[in-house]
Amino acid sequence: MNSFEKFVYDTVKRYPKLKFFLRDAYQQCFDLLPVKAELSAYPITARKNCFFGFHDHTPFSPDNKKLLAGRFDIPLRMPTASDRLEVGYFDGANFENFNPVSTTKAWNWHQGAKMQWVGPQNTLSFNDHENGENVAKLFNLESGILQTLPAAISAISKDGKFAIGYSFARVQRYMPGYGYEHPTSEAELEKPIPKQSGIYVIDMETLEKRDLFSIDDIVALDKRKSAEHCHHFLSHALFSPSGKRFAFLHRWVTNDVRNRKSTLFTSDLSGTDIRIYPTDEMASHLGWRDENHLLAYCRTPKRGDRYVLFDDRNPEEYEIIGADSFSSDGHPSYDPSGRWFVTDTYPDRTRRCSLILFDQLRSEKHLIAKLKSPKKFATTDPSRHWQCDLHPRWDRLGKYICFDSTYTGERALCTIHLDDDLIDDVRNLKAIL
Asked: DSSP of 99-159, one letter per residue?
């Protein structure tokens, strides 16, 4: 955003209907201007009718030779309860061969089916729906054995020992497009502050599920005037690198589900050491840099909406990252070294999304691609949420970046291969773009 756009956005961001109306009208003014659909410093490989989903997990296998993907065959509309997503992976040179392993009915355009690799094993997981409940499945590529977990999951620890989850039915009710279009037996779905819904942990060896705390417990810790007479839910649970702690968002909405407020929390696996972050009612996307540091795009009382690096040992200790480089939200994830993070932007005035590398050591921002998102993917109706964000993710070695994009006119799973010497390579990006 330029300074004018940032001023307008900050003025109207608390009024979702007005914000989206002005966004669409503003972008429409630029629709007649010719712009390239793809401007990239690296060659892009696009895999048509495939995508991965969110930015918070790597789709690359532990040996970095397989790339998780969902393959779809429906037109541009919201998935229905009967629509199945094909679950599989790409392998081969430049990940060109698709290998289907199963299908799922529990998926959405933004997070897919929460596909993940299970620790160092040759096993993948994905959410599904069966017998009236949201569950998760484990598929071992060597044995072909398919197991069912007792509930859908948000994240699996890096060592593969534990999974955490929350009510995806409740997320779908109050944040449409991030849950699944299936009725469940959940008793307190319409209750503003449920006592039976919260965060749970699953032991991946015994497949036993244990509740950690409820939404009611979290609301008691996060008392805010704006949260009164609202419906509350939890989402975006994500393990730290060691798997000993995890982050999650407490969110609440009024009658308009787009008018959403959030607080960032972390907890241990006992659910007793819970830490609340000073995110001033707005926290969106996050990524762990290392065991003690968590990056989030959020709002701080004194600095407004920024990328903020928190120290989980004391959440009141934080630093603003890229204060002169970023003026809008994105989806960050760190490379294995913890020096670089990749992030993106939402479509600008010309409907192009930016793919960005940020060097935290030098505090330098490097634009590596600008990719157009056609108008048909822009929606204002919260129940028709099929926008395609880039959601960039790293591979296991810091050599590939994977993202979803519509620059070809259709949704596709994309990768770029970075040069071996990333530090020297990015110095030349300004000349390339």
From this structure: EEEEEES--BTTTBT--EE-TTSSEEEEEEEETTEEEEEEEETTT--EEEESS--SEE-TT
**Contact (Cβ atoms closer than 8 angstroms) between residue 149 and residue 127:** no
pLDDT tens-digit profile of 308-324?
A: 999 999 999 999 999 99
Cα separation, 34 vs 47, whole angstroms: 25
CB 298 within 8 A of CB 308: yes
Handedness of CA 372, 377, 380, 382 (dihedral sign): negative
| Confidence grade of residue 44 (pLDDT, cut at 50, 70, 90) | very high
Percent of the chain with pLDDT over 70: 89
Integer Cα distance of 168 and 151 in angstroms: 10
DSSP 281: T
Query: What pLDDT is attached to residue 401?
Result: 97
Sheet holding 116-117, edge to edge: 116-117, 123-130, 133-140, 146-149
Dist. CA 113–CA 277, nearest whole Å: 28
Q: Left, alpha or beta for 306 (phi > 0: left; psi -120 to 50: alpha)? A: beta
Bridge-partner residues for 68, per DSSP? 89
Bridge partner list, 265 = 248, 276
- Position 15 scores a pLDDT of 65
Return the structure tokens found at 158: 């890096």
Helix (H/G/I), strand (E/B), else coil: 300? strand
**Which of 8-22, 133-147, 160-174, 256-270 shows the lowest per-residue confidence on average (mean pLDDT)?**
8-22
As given in the structure block, the two tokens for residue 307 are 């990328």
Q: Domains in the chain, start-ordered, CATH in brackets?
A: 1-34 (no CATH), 37-90+331-433 (no CATH), 105-276 (2.40.128)
